[in-house]
Every structure is written in structure tokens, then in C-alpha cells.
């Protein structure tokens, strides 16, 4: 593993709408570290499958897509994330609820997870990495310097997600979103491979009622 293991990693795991994406981005910016949005990789696999007409239960084809994922991560002049899949701008397409549901469907397949494992570990580059997902602390970076399990009440998570989508011009009913979140939580927590749960050595942070700034400050404080 050469010197990789010495590169510090902050793992931030948690359920849908816990705010881990925003927090991970802010923490990475504050430290000047790299960012891994591992959920985006699962979303890209689902999107690539949709683009090519691959069924979400066709394990061999999904593994081939995951193993050869042609994805590029960057940001525009304003610092907003930009993601390309096979040279096409996929920034908006991967953030839909459909892509999220597709991601959580392909994410139950161990061979797909295995195909993405090394790709995720390759993001560990100096001076450090903030990795956001479901199994960063439990599987991908078990030796992370700091493991945070970020959560919030189900109601608050549905409201946050609703606002996030609305800001992007996507109109979904709060009730439908709550159902979707519950369903995705259930699938992510109950699956037999890499279920969503805090690592034994994770610090749990319930962000209900906390501002983004307060959550970021807590994580930075824990990071030392
Ligand atoms: O975090 P995000 O909502 O983008 O993740 C989409 C889906 O990808 C999750 O619901 C989960 O099923 C899956 N995922 C995963 N492991 C990760 C990140 C995401 O299984 N490390």
C-alpha cells in the first residue's frame, strides 16, 4: 500500500439527508483536502446502466460498468460540483431521486461494491481525504483517522432533502420524499452487504437542530 496509509482520512457516514455531503465538502475545503463522494459512484453506475439499457439486476454487466467507470469530478468557477460520465455532464442527472434509488439498488450487489472498492481507495492522496458515504468507516477506510456517523431525525432529513431538491428546481411532495427516504434507509440498513451502521470506533453526531457551521466546527474540532 506504499505510503498511502499514512495519508489521513476523515470518514463521514450516515443516512440520506443527514447532511454528510455538505459537511464533507465544507470540511475538505477548510482543511484543503481531497473529497470522495462515494454515493456519486453508485449513482454513476446506475446512470450508466440506464444510458445503456442494462437492467439493475444484471450483475455481470453492472460489474463491467463499475470496473470501467469513466467518471470525472470537478467544479465550476463558482465552486459548484461538476461530474462527467463518459464525457457527458452528469451533474444534474445523478442527483435525481431516480438515480438515488437506482444507486441503492445496485449498491446491494457485493460484486459491484468490490468493483468500486479500489477506485474509492485511490482517492486517498496527500495532504488528506474526506470521504463521504455509507461504509467509509466500516469497510473502505477502516483505518481512518476520524470516523463520524452523522445523523438527524427522519423528519428533519426529509425536510432538508425537500429544500435541497426545491433549490434545484425539482418539485417533489414532502410525503413522497419521506416515503422514499424511509424505503432507502431500510434497504441500506437491512442489506446483508456493507449495511449502514456506525463503525465501532465512530463518533456519532446527531445534527438535528444544528447549523451547518456548528456541525463543521464539531468535526474539525474532533479532527484536531
Ligand atoms: O449518498 P447518496 O445518497 O448519494 O448515495 C446513494 C446510494 O448509494 C445510497 O442510498 C446507498 O445505497 C449507496 N451507497 C452505498 N455506499 C456508499 C455510498 C452510497 O451503498 N459508500
Structural features, described:
By secondary structure, this protein is an alpha/beta fold. It has a single domain, classed as P-loop containing nucleotide triphosphate hydrolases (Rossmann fold, 3-Layer(aba) Sandwich), CATH 3.40.50.300. Helix content is 47%, strand content 16%. The chain contains nine helices and eight strands. It has helices at residues 20-31, 38-52, 59-67, 97-106, 110-121, 136-140, 154-167, 174-190, 212-223; strands at residues 9-13, 34-37, 71-75, 81-85, 88-89, 129-133, 146-151, 203-206. The strands form two sheets. A five-stranded parallel β-sheet has the order 2-6-1-7-8. The chain has a three-stranded antiparallel β-sheet with strand order 3-4-5, with helices on one face. β3 and β4 form a beta hairpin. α2 (38-52) crosses α3 and α2 packs across α4. It is globular, with a radius of gyration of 17 Å. The model has no long low-confidence stretch (mean pLDDT 92). Bound molecules: cytidine-5'-monophosphate. Cytidine-5'-monophosphate binds next to α2, α4 and α8.
Produce a short descriptive summary.
This protein is α/β, with parallel strands linked by helices and 224 residues long.
Amino acid at each position: 500500500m506504499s505510503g498511502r496509509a499514512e495519508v489521513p482520512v476523515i470518514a463521514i457516514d450516515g443516512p440520506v439527508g443527514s447532511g454528510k455531503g455538505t459537511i464533507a465538502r465544507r470540511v475538505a475545503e477548510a482543511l484543503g483536502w481531497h473529497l470522495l463522494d462515494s454515493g456519486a459512484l453508485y449513482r454513476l453506475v446506475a446512470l450508466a446502466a440506464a444510458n445503456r439499457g442494462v437492467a439493475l439486476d444484471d450483475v455481470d454487466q453492472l460489474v463491467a460498468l463499475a470496473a470501467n467507470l469513466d467518471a470525472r469530478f470537478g467544479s465550476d468557477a463558482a465552486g459548484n460540483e461538476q461530474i462527467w460520465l463518459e464525457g457527458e455532464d452528469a451533474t444534474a442527472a445523478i442527483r435525481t431521486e431516480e438515480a438515488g434509488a437506482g444507486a441503492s439498488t445496485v449498491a446491494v450487489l457485493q460484486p459491484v461494491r468490490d468493483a468500486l472498492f479500489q477506485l474509492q481507495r485511490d482517492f486517498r492522496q496527500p495532504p488528506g481525504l474526506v470521504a463521504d458515504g455509507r461504509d467509509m468507516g466500516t469497510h473502505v477506510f477502516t483505518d481512518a483517522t476520524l470516523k463520524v456517523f452523522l445523523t438527524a431525525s427522519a423528519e428533519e432529513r426529509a425536510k432538508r432533502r425537500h429544500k435541497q431538491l426545491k433549490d434545484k428546481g425539482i418539485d417533489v411532495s414532502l410525503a413522497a420524499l419521506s416515503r422514499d427516504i424511509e424505503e432507502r434507509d431500510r434497504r441500506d440498513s437491512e442489506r446483508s452487504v456493507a449495511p449502514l451502521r456506525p463503525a465501532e470506533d465512530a463518533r456519532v453526531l446527531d445534527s438535528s437542530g444544528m447549523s451547518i457551521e456548528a456541525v463543521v466546527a464539531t468535526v474539525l474540532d474532533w479532527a484536531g
